[in-house]
Amino acid sequence: MPGYDVKFGGRISGNPFPEIAWLKDGKPLDTTSDKYKVKVDNDMMTFSVRDCDDKDVGVYSCVLKNSEGEDKCQAKLEVVDKP
């Protein structure tokens, strides 16, 4: 729903611990802004999109990369009004 915060979460593993990048529709996101936040606590990660609106609709991808390789997952975000 518009105006709400959305959170994506998951576990991270790798040795060495991977670098984390978030993309929206294939374009990198500035996770240091107030709009997007990444929190990592040991092996748990949460990615937040604050105050969602129509501009936030799209496919969000998390890319994890270290010297051993790369992995990626994605999720589609839709913002809808209450019926």
Description:
The chain has strands at residues 6-11, 19-24, 27-28, 36-41, 44-49, 58-66, 69-77. It is mainly β and 83 residues long. The protein has one domain (6-73): Immunoglobulins (Immunoglobulin-like, Sandwich), CATH 2.60.40.10. The chain is elongated, with a radius of gyration of 13 Å.
Strand-helix topology:
Layout lengths: L5 E6 L7 E6 L2 E2 L7 E6 L2 E6 L8 E9 L2 E9 L6
Antiparallel strand pairs: 1-5, 2-3, 2-6, 4-5, 6-7
How many domains would you count in the coordinates?
1
Give the CATH superfamily: Immunoglobulins
What percent of residues are in strands?
over 45%
Strand order of the largest sheet: 3-2-6-7
Q: Count the DSSP helices.
A: 0
Please tell me what the overall shape is.
Answer: elongated
CA radius of gyration is 13 Å
Q: Which architecture per CATH?
A: Sandwich
Order of helices and strands: EEEEEEE
